[in-house]
UniProtKB/TrEMBL annotation:
<protein>
    <submittedName>
        <fullName>Uncharacterized protein</fullName>
    </submittedName>
</protein>
<feature type="region of interest" description="Disordered">
    <location>
        <begin position="1"/>
        <end position="40"/>
    </location>
</feature>
<feature type="compositionally biased region" description="Polar residues">
    <location>
        <begin position="1"/>
        <end position="21"/>
    </location>
</feature>
Length: 75
């Protein structure tokens, strides 16, 4: 059974709490988002290289379709 009472929701622009390593200080959402962007998707200007994201998404879709086709052929 799902206990929905423990779910926390964050709105865009809210600060997210950091661990006690920083003395309970909070870091803004923009800072945590920049740290969470993998290096392969960073464009060198602090943004996201959307073309690389799209290429990776297309490749992932292609791989899924190939897997589905292989599974269907086994049936």
């Amino acid at each position: 059974m799902l206990n929905a009472g423990n779910i926390q929701y964050f709105q865009h622009g809210e600060s997210t709490p950091q661990s006690d390593e920083n003395g309970g200080a909070e870091v803004g959402i923009d800072h945590t988002l920049n740290d969470s962007i993998p290096a392969r998707y960073q464009d060198g200007r602090g943004g996201i290289d959307l073309e690389q994201v799209r290429r990776d998404q297309r490749e992932a879709r292609r791989q899924v379709l190939q897997w589905v086709i292989r599974r269907l052929r086994r049936l």
